[in-house]
Amino acid sequence: MYIGRFVVVGPGIGAYRVSSRSFPDRRVVDRDGTLTVGPTPDAPETDNPYVSYNCVRRVETPTGEPLAVLGNGSHVDSIAEKLELGYPARDALATPLLALDFEKDDYDTPRIAGVVGAETATIGTVRRDALLVESVDEPTLVATYERDSPDAYDIAAEDAEAAASEVLGADFEHPVCAAGATVDDEGVSLAFDNGE
């Protein structure tokens, strides 16, 4: 089954995977503590604005709470900025998702995102027909296609590297690259897996 890009978040853990039929020549790189999806050196040129973006960011709230933001586009930066200003996770997700809306591509691709804290997690999506934002107590997946409403997802990983590798190897079509994050009282750990 092809579900496109997807996010999995639960308290303390999160992962994001790029799955793509149109732009498979991408990878995740670490840019000073922010994980960014972008083209590989041999990727064909494209002017598609949805190919490169920050997919995972560390955040520290005004109270010092460490959080990770994961998602499939430029809204990740807006969500992180709202959290840094002290917005609650629900509002930090809902505001940019509503403002930016679904992607204006040929498929009306939903925007998906999650916020992970040490003891909390919130997941959201904006589609052509809905804005959904939910606090979750167990790992939950939302994808751009087929599984575009938050739904429970079984993830066994306990660290960021294992989370990235587990979702990259998940039984969904066209895997490209993945990122993982864990959050505890000490902070946020990030990792990625480009399948190399």
UniProtKB/TrEMBL annotation:
Pfam families in alphabetical order: IMP_cyclohyd
Superkingdom assignment: Archaea
Domain Inosine monophosphate cyclohydrolase-like: 2-186
Keyword annotations: Hydrolase, Purine biosynthesis
Gene Ontology molecular-function annotations: IMP cyclohydrolase activity
Catalytic reaction(s) noted: IMP + H2O = 5-formamido-1-(5-phospho-D-ribosyl)imidazole-4-carboxamide
Similarity field: Belongs to the archaeal IMP cyclohydrolase family.
Function: Catalyzes the cyclization of 5-formylamidoimidazole-4-carboxamide ribonucleotide to IMP.
Alphabetical list of NCBIfam families matching this protein: PRK04151.1, purO_arch
Protein name: IMP cyclohydrolase
Gene encoding the protein: purO
